[in-house]
Amino acid sequence: MAEQVATSGNGAGQGAPGVGHKANGGGHAAVRQITSVDQGDRIVPINLRQSGPTPVQMLISTRVRKNAYWHLSHQAGCWRATVYNRMYHPRGYVRPEDGGAMVEYDAIVNHVTMWNVAVERQIQVKGPDAEAFVNYVITRDATRIEPMHGKYVILCNEKGGILNDPVLLRLAEDEFWFSLSDSDILFWLQGVNVGRKFNVEISEIDVSPVQIQGPKSEALMADLVGDGIRDMPYYGLLEAKVGGRDCVISQSGFSGEKGYEIYLRDSMLYAEDMWNAVLEAGKKHSLMVIAPAHHRRIAAGILSWGQDLDHETLPFQCNLSYQVPRKKTADYIGKARLEEVRAQVEAGNPPYKNTLVGIALGGKPIEDYAPDFWLISGEDGGAPVGYVTSPWYSPELETNIAMGYVPWEMRDLGTRLKIWLPDQYAETPGVPVDGRIVEVPFRPSVNPNAREIAKSEGRDAAF
Fold first, then answer.
1. What sign does the CA torsion over 34, 37, 43, 48 have?
2. Backbone phi and psi for residue 137, each to the nearest 5 degrees, phi listed first
């Protein structure tokens, strides 16, 4: 059965200079790429056409994989999906007429939620040279990761572009798992090793995670695996059984709330056993199955690969400069270029045009995903010079917030902007709303990330 893709209706007409489609989302012949945003440093520009939600139906076929929990997500009410790592990825359970994504937001900030994130494929690197190989393909120092611990890392190409920003789990001295964001790193890692010939095996394995996120997650996980989990450190790992099936559990997540991930081994065989055990244990904790909480991750300043960054993005332009250590002596892919870029940035002459910033903006509450990269102008409301990547409404801050790219020279906190929202969210149709650049994260996380820890300790880089 074909699932209906989200048709949020937030593609209403734009009044931005150079944007010319009708308010009803029609007239696509008039839609053109915005060229006033300087993307001269990119080989493939970001598509800045404002074409709206373009409602279509998603074809369910065998070309895209159904993950081990796909049928369970559908049973739980999943009504829309996207594709991530060549798998169908649930992105909505509560329908708009029932309150939509903001009902899911209430669940994650007040209770506990489970997400089907089996699309975060696990790439295993195993063998005598596992540590040396992993240390060569990530920017951070893999030798500092102890067995049964993990870290958030990035992998870059020789130009310094970010290929993926996974969570890296170290299961043993000779075994690592890359828990991927949305790009085919399996092929990259295998290709790297064709020439380098490290003594390792590199494989996608049958391990599929779910995330358990929200303030009641610790109590739920203690019910599932015992009170010992209460002592687990951030990014610590634990071997346990859930529903009688072997799992690896980490304290981590994509939300900024307290949370865990359950990595089920042999997931194609045992998905139902683990999933149903979580549902049963979650009843007394008001557990809700929801989509990944992009509204909360935006507030936490957590990036989404493909949305906030891609393989042409340098760490220094998207708040990931802390991922480029100053004290790592070992060589790694992209090291020479990244150190060159850091020197250029510190000299005030970055080799890129635009940089990612946090924005507080006006308009009606943005309560669903943006179908386009909405446009940003300077305070005068003239030709667009930047674009929004991740917008949402923050109930706690009582304002819309967003991450987006603006020219380097406009990056300072307090800089005033104009944001061209669709008519659905604009205060006055065709008129941009006010915005200003603010600190990221917008709200603190339960567990500060490595960037925030480094900053608090007077460092500009993690280890």
1. negative
2. -105, -10
Residue 20 has pLDDT above 50, yes or no: no
**Eight-state DSSP code of residue 233:** P
State pLDDT tens for residues 72-110: 999 999 999 999 999 999 999 999 999 999 999 999 999
Q: Is 284 exposed, middle or buried (0-12, 13-18, 19+ CB in 10 A)?
A: exposed
Q: What is the pLDDT of residue 456?
A: 84
Tokens 């080799």, residue? 351
Name residues whose C-beta falls within 8 Å of residue 119's C-beta, 6 or more positions apart in sequence.
67, 84, 85, 87, 88, 89, 182
Angle between helices 217-225 and 267-282 (to 10 degrees): 120
Question: How many domains would you assign to the chain?
Answer: 1
User: What is the spatial distance between Cα 208 and Cα 266, in angstroms, rounded to a whole number?
Assistant: 8
Mean pLDDT rounded to a whole number for the chain: 94
Distance CA 17, CA 384 (A): 7
Chain centroid to Cα 6, Å, comes to 19
Q: Which residue has the tokens 């500092």?
A: 144
Whether 254 is in a domain gets the answer yes
Checking if the pLDDT of 157 tops 50, the result is yes
Structure tokens at 66: 């159904």
Beta bridge partners of 383: none
Contacts 24+ apart (CB under 8 A), 74-77: 74/3, 76/289, 77/289
* CATH code of the domain containing 253: 3.30.1360.120
Least confident interval from 298-302, 394-398, 442-446, 459-463: 459-463
Locate tokens 């800089």: which residue?
415
Q: How far apart are CA 388 and CA 356, in angstroms?
A: 9
Residue 251 belongs to some domain of the structure: yes
Q: CA–CA separation, 21 vs 16, rounded Å?
A: 10
Share of the chain above pLDDT 70, in %: 94
In a domain, 61, yes or no: no
Name the residue range of residue 246's domain: 207-285
Do 145 and 168 touch, CB atoms closer than 8 A? yes
Only one residue has tokens 């929202």, namely 421
Domain presence at residue 35: no
